[in-house]
Design a protein that fits this description.
Strand order of the largest sheet: 1-2
Shape: globular
Distance between the termini: 32 Å
Number of helices: 14
């Protein structure tokens, strides 16, 4: 979970650490448009996350049964183990349950993007837009096969999916189209049920179909293919570059516009199994762990406390919140000295992300809390990245505050 930092004006003059706010009608218009866009997107995501959680947990349990309880080799599939004849009695029953849970859990993952599109459209155009949004979101991951000539014969060919990008576009188009129809089409009260339950849903579904088949899927599929080919061409360098950008953007403003933009991109890549979300999940909690750890090791590191009693208590809480995947614990530290602390967040998040990714940590499930750690491939590498980034933040902040104390620029009660 990433939280926005709000710098509160206490009457002092604005420092160079605080970015200027756009002024005038243009700035207000841009701010309003972003807030509306963000509100609708976050509504869709809030309905999608429970589906991802259910699918992820059931899918994880399906893997724990064979590979932990039964000691199967990671290279062997559940179905191959069933057909091997090595298992009998209760072991066969456990493998059957695991196979069902695996299929069910990863089927739930397939409903995440349609749910996102449905409730994003619903947020914009009301409940009459929900069905068309779901249809568009489903077609975004399961494109409609179109007739095409293959070796001189007509055949139904499924194009490359537009994925999360296509779901965002169709959700907004359908949502605003339904809102426009609701405001424009005037019918007698006796025809209201016909309008809301039949006419508008039918027209919006047809519009969603036409747009997805002839416009959004071709363009979105082309973009997805381009991205995949670019990543394949870049190899490990592309992976590290993506992890660096994602970690920096996530830690930069803790829930602000940059963070949200990074989240949209990362969520799209991970739900489509293009790129894992490892770097973002690490970057969400590294600031909380780092700043919390700095309140624990300061006396051991420099021989004195560099935080007052209140910050020491907040630091302990920050560590606990980090285990819950929550970044609120790092906010008070950033509010106190944003010009120094926020760049340290960013660098620490990058260090941790690159450490984890380079050592082989892979996380597809978009959650940073400790209960999601069993879903991570190569958890030791993930923990090394988490510890490395947190230690950088902790040590840097302790020595920085100690220097301020020595110069008389900081007093610790």
């Amino acid at each position: 979970m990433a939280i926005r930092i709000r710098v509160i004006n206490t009457g002092h003059s604005q420092s160079s650490d605080t970015p200027a706010t756009p002024a005038g009608p243009a700035g207000k218009g841009q701010s309003h448009a972003w807030k509306e866009f963000s509100k609708h997107i976050m509504t869709g995501i809030s309905y999608m996350i429970p589906v991802l959680i259910m699918g992820g947990l059931i899918g994880a349990l399906s893997q724990i049964i064979p590979y932990v309880f039964l000691g199967m080799s990671p290279d062997e599939s559940i179905m191959a183990a069933l057909n091997s004849g090595r298992y009998t009695g209760s072991s066969v029953w456990m493998l059957q349950i695991a196979s069902i849970m695996e299929s069910f859990g990863f089927t739930l993952f397939g409903f995440a993007i349609p749910m996102f599109a449905a409730f994003t459209a619903n947020s914009i155009g009301g409940k009459t837009a929900l069905a068309a949004g779901f249809i568009g979101g489903y077609v975004a991951i399961k494109p409609v096969a179109v007739p095409a000539l293959v070796s001189g014969q007509w055949a139904a060919v499924a194009p490359v999916a537009s994925g999360f990008l296509g779901a965002i576009v169709i959700a907004f188009v359908v949502g605003y189209f339904v809102r426009w129809m609701n405001n424009t089409i005037r019918l007698p009260h006796t025809w209201l049920a016909f309008k809301t339950n039949f006419f508008i849903p039918l027209i919006s579904a047809i519009v969603a179909m036409l747009l997805m088949v002839f416009l959004i899927t071709p363009i979105g599929g082309w973009l997805n293919t381009l991205i995949k080919e670019a990543l394949q061409a870049a190899g490990s360098a592309g992976t590290y570059f993506y992890a660096t950008l994602l970690a920096a953007a996530t830690a930069f403003d803790l829930g602000g516009p940059v963070n949200k933009a990074a989240g949209f991109v990362a969520l799209g890549f991970t739900t489509e199994k293009v790129l894992p979300i490892t770097a973002r999940c690490l970057a969400i909690v590294i600031p909380s762990f780092g700043l919390g750890l700095s309140t624990v090791i300061d006396k051991w590191l420099v021989g004195r406390r560099v935080y007052d009693r209140q910050f020491n208590q907040i630091g302990r809480t920050a560590i606990f919140l980090g285990f819950m995947g929550i970044s609120e614990g790092s906010i008070p530290f950033a509010l106190e000295r944003p010009g120094f602390v926020i760049p340290v967040y960013v660098i620490g998040a990058i260090i941790g992300a690159l450490l984890g990714v380079s050592l082989g940590a892979v996380q597809w499930f978009p959650e940073s809390a400790i209960w999601a750690w069993p879903l991570i491939t190569n958890i030791p590498a993930y923990l090394i990245g988490l510890l490395g980034g947190s230690l950088f933040i902790a040590v840097t902040c302790v020595f920085y505050r100690n220097r301020l104390i020595k110069k008389g620029l900081l007093e610790v009660a």
